[in-house]
Design brief:
Elements lengths: L11 E8 L4 H17 L3 H21 L8 E8 L3 E8 L27 H8 L2 E7 L2 E9 L4
Antiparallel strand pairs: 1-2, 2-3, 3-5, 4-5
Helix pairs in contact: 1-2, 2-3
Length: about 150
Amino acid sequence: MPQPPSTGEETAVFQLAIQNKASEIVRLSQWLNQTVAPALKLSEKLTFRLDLILEEALTNVIDYAFVSDAPQTITVCLNAATETVSVQVIDEGRPFNPLAEHEVKLPTSLEDAGKGGLGLHLIRSYTKTCLYQRRDNQNIFTMILDRHQS
């Protein structure tokens, strides 16, 4: 399993495998809120941010990564250290580097806002760092959050 860049800190690792179905996002949210957050004593705000960025990242993978609707496994790996929490979304879908996408121009009014297109912007705004790798036919998208960000 790929690991985020080492910081020399002790880490706690949690992993969940989900299927490429939208209903699995609910199971992921329950895992995060009922298992991971309490075990790691994550703040409510950090848990909310993790939940939101994972929902955005996984929705993109489920909607666009796979050629067919055949069952596919997506792995979520969360590593918590003293100062950071990193989460990886790993899939065997089509190669897609979300960091290569251009910055989105934010709408100036509700009328200008269309449906979709802001998920990657939201992920970038809630994370300290994002990394992408394509290795062994897998997309590995790592999002690192500051554990103490207010």
